[in-house]
């Protein structure tokens, strides 16, 4: 087939014999490129007619995405094949061949990047069809595919540019001299590219070990934030108020942070109530049970009410209830607070926290409040003077009857 193709081009070159030589050669090369374009269009139309809803649709979309780089590479191949019979000067043929070689290498790398993106997007679309958006396996695959795709794009780009540059003789000699002095060169390049390499390897490690995933809910700098995007060098975090944190990807390997959805999206929410000691715990516990069991945000797994602590003024009630996600847990806790506060205010006002003041009369009976109900019984304190301790006789001979500081 190659011989027939060259024969056709040679005959075409003779047809343009009445034109100047360089013009006839350029027209012949243009004809070769046009033949490649027509062949590419014909072949593309055949592929686009493949039937099918799943595999056929994927083949058609893949063909449409690869259409441009494939056509350029095909044109390069046809023109490169026609160069020996073009009749151009040797120096021009050499320069054109080298240009076509560089263009072919670049288009090959571009086609590899496009193919990687198409395959990864097809895989992400397939796993995104699942109904459970909080599936750990789903978010794991999304993170790994996107991280590995960006790493592959970077590596393919570096290899493509390096391969195209190595086609130039001066660059090739420079590369060989660098390999000859690899010790000093690797040290200089390593120091210069340290931030890039650190983030690149950190991204690969995150893709493998999964400390964070796409749409994970983490706590950073005191803010709730969702992992919106993971690139090869940084992570975009979406805060609840639509702000964005741009964090270097190495941060998640060198610092501690909270990940609320690492193994599961479900969380146990905690609500604290501060009530008076007269609060009826049975009624409060029963009302809390009714509130939680009637809440649609409760997942039906964990619920408990306990007196967790007490102080001189109030006792602390801890309410725990589980939900399917962090946001549902937040809304569930807010609902519990609203309803239990209304219950305490309307039906159990004695449970509301209060301040207690006690007015103590002096030893002489003066200084007390007029209302006897507000006056506590007088306290038998030691007389003025130094207090040597319990059981001891003060200097004035009167034995103290209690413990306390001297008046």
TrEMBL record:
User: Per the database record, which ranges form the Mechanosensitive ion channel MscS domain?
Assistant: 196-262
Chain segments carrying region Disordered: 367-407
InterPro entries cross-referenced by the UniProt entry:
LSM_dom_sf, MscS_beta-dom_sf, MscS_channel_2nd
Location(s) in or outside the cell = Membrane
According to its record, what are the GO cellular component terms?
Answer: membrane
TM region(s), chain numbering:
15-39, 70-88, 100-120, 174-197
UniProt cross-references to Gene3D superfamilies, sorted A to Z: 1.10.287.1260, 2.30.30.60
Q: Which of UniProt's keywords are assigned here?
A: Membrane, Transmembrane, Transmembrane helix
Q: What molecular function does GO assign, one term?
A: mechanosensitive monoatomic ion channel activity
Coiled coil regions in record: none
Q: What is this protein called?
A: Mechanosensitive ion channel protein MscS
């Amino acid at each position: 087939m190659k011989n027939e193709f060259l024969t056709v081009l040679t005959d075409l070159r003779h047809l343009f014999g009445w034109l100047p030589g360089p013009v006839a050669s350029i027209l012949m090369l243009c004809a070769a490129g046009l033949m490649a374009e027509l062949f590419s269009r014909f072949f593309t139309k055949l592929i686009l007619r493949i039937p099918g809803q799943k595999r056929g649709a994927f083949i058609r979309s893949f063909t449409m995405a690869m259409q441009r780089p494939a056509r350029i590479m095909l044109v390069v191949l046809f023109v490169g094949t026609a160069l020996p019979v073009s009749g151009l000067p040797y120096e021009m043929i050499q320069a054109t061949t080298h240009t076509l070689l560089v263009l072919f290498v670049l288009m090959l790398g571009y086609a590899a990047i496009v193919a990687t993106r198409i395959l990864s997007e097809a895989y992400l679309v397939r796993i995104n069809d699942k109904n459970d958006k909080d599936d750990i396996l789903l978010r794991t695959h999304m993170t790994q595919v996107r991280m590995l795709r960006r790493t592959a794009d970077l590596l393919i780009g570096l290899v493509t540019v390096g391969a195209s540059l190595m086609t130039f003789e001066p660059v090739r000699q420079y590369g060989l001299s660098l390999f000859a002095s690899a010790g000093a060169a690797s040290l200089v390049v390593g120091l210069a590219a340290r931030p890039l390499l650190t983030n690149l390897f950190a991204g690969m490690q995150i893709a493998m070990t999964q400390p964070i995933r796409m749409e994970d809910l983490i706590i950073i700098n005191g803010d709730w934030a969702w992992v919106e995007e993971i690139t090869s060098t940084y992570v975009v975090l979406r805060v609840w108020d639509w702000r964005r944190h741009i964090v270097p990807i190495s941060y998640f390997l060198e610092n501690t942070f909270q990940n609320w959805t690492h193994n599961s999206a479900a969380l146990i929410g905690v609500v604290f109530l501060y009530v008076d000691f007269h609060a009826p715990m049975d009624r409060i516990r029963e009302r809390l049970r009714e509130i939680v069991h009637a809440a649609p945000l409760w997942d039906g797994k964990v619920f408990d009410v306990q007196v967790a602590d007490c102080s001189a003024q109030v006792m602390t009630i801890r309410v725990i209830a589980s939900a399917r996600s962090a946001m549902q847990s937040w809304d569930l806790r807010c609902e519990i607070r609203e309803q239990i506060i209304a219950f305490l205010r309307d039906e159990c006002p004695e449970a509301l926290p209060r301040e207690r003041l006690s007015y103590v009369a002096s030893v002489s009976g003066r200084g007390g409040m007029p209302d006897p109900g507000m006056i506590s019984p007088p306290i038998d304190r030691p007389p003025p003077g130094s207090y040597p301790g319990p059981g001891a006789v003060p200097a004035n001979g009167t034995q103290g009857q209690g413990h306390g500081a001297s008046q």
